[in-house]
Amino acid sequence: MSDLISQLQHILRRKCLLGQSRLPLSEQNRALLQVRLLEPRPQAKESAPPQTARTAPPALSASAPAPAPVAAPALRPLPPLQQLGWDELEQAMRTCQACALYQTRQHVVCGGGFRQSRLMFIGEGPGAEEDRQGRVFVGRAGEMLNNMIKAMGFDREAQNPEHGVYIANILKCRPPQNRNPLEGEAQACLPFVQRQIELLQPELIVLLGGVALKYLLGLTGITKLRGNWLEYRGIPVMPTFHPAYLLRFERQKNLFVNEKRKVWHDLQLVMQRLAPPGA
Ligand code: SF4
After folding, report:
1. Which of 123, 217, 226, 253 has the maximum number of C-beta atoms within 10 A of its C-beta?
2. Cα dist. 204→197, 232, 274, 275 in Å?
3. CB count, 10 Å around CB of 31?
4. Dihedral sign, Cα of residue 11, residue 13, residue 14, residue 19
5. Residue from 89, 93, 101, 104 to probe ligand 1 pocket by mutation (most atoms less than 8 Å from CB)
6. Distance (Å, rounded) from C-alpha 196 to C-alpha 193?
7. Residue 270, class by beta-carbon neighbours within 10 Å (0-12 exposed, 13-18 middle, 19+ buried)?
8. CA dist., res. 178 & res. 168, Å (int)
9. How many other CB atoms are found less than 10 A from the CB of residue 68?
10. Measured from the CA of 188, which atom of ligand 1 is nearest?
11. pLDDT of res. 73
12. Domain 86-273 has CATH 1.20.1090.10
């Protein structure tokens, strides 16, 4: 049959060249042609994918296993804290799963110091060293805070009202890469520090840095607000810079001295306001 088709094509081509567009066909040839036209066309070779297909991400083959969905961490809301004493409160922190940070922490950093202290320092959250040791304000920022506390006539190791202090953070677990806490993380953790303040009932609170200022008092702008007396539930609050902020300027001597002087000014206001023990 293919010979007949070739012949008919050849004749048609010649007719076209002669300006003739019609080819008289016998009944038999017409029938053969119809059969040929109704035959399924051979499968065309797969053409090259269009330009956009090349740049599109590769499609998953039907047999490839779908990637496992990333499960959201299972969170557990905080238990009521109002009735908890110091030890129970710390136990609640250590088992806390109220925000996703429980998944990446090495240790919960509860805070520490003298539990009847008149003076409380509140920072932001644990850094790498605090997370490793499970202790609040260790590492270089911790050393700087220790020096400040000593210069004020206190001692973070002291267990008496005359020299003892209590130190805590807004956040009890370290955010990965020391990033700032997310709003949800800080809000989830806030009841812990609020209960710590309730238990301690300090005469004065020093807030270290903008994160502590934001979450305890709902205020932003540590640069403007530092050195000004604020208040938390009737307790005078002095916001000042975080020691880690000061450490950023260590190599720029003039700036370092200048920023440290501001912090020292704020701490002197605290010392002036703090009544002598037993007064
Ligand atoms: S950061 Fe606070 S709220 Fe989040 S898991 Fe740790 S203790 Fe719980």
Report:
1. 123
2. 10, 10, 7, 10
3. 11
4. positive
5. 101
6. 5
7. buried
8. 17
9. 6
10. 3
11. 79
12. no
Max Cα distance, the chain (Å):
127
Give the residue carrying structure tokens 């370290």.
Answer: 174
Q: Which atom in ligand 1 lies closest to the alpha carbon of residue 105?
A: 6
> Are 237 and 214 within 8 A, CB to CB?
no
Classify residue 134 as left (phi > 0), alpha (psi -120 to 50) or beta. Answer: left
Spatial CA neighbour of 233 closest among 200, 198, 260, 266: 198
- The terminus-to-terminus CA distance of the chain in angstroms comes to 119
Strands (E), 144-242: 166-169, 204-208, 230-232, 235-240
CA dihedral for 85, 235, 181, 132, sign (positive or negative)? negative
Total count of residues recorded for the chain: 279
Enter the DSSP assignment of 64.
S
Q: pLDDT tens digits for 129-171?
A: 999 999 999 999 999 999 999 999 999 999 999 999 999 999 9
How high is the pLDDT of residue 182?
97
The residues pairing with 184 across neighbouring beta strands, listed in sequence order, are none
Q: In sequence order, what E strands does the chain have?
A: 112-113, 119-123, 166-169, 204-208, 230-232, 235-240
Atom of ligand 1 nearest to the CA of 181: 1
Structure confidence at residue 154 (pLDDT):
97
Strands 166-169 and 230-232: unpaired
Contacts for 266-271 with beta carbons within 8 Å, 24 or more apart?
A: 266/206, 266/226, 266/227, 266/238, 266/239, 266/240, 267/148, 267/151, 267/152, 267/206, 267/238, 267/240, 269/227, 269/229, 269/238, 270/119, 270/152, 270/204, 270/206, 270/238, 271/152, 271/153
Residues with CB under 6 A from ligand 1: 93, 96-99, 101-102, 108, 171-173, 185, 188-189
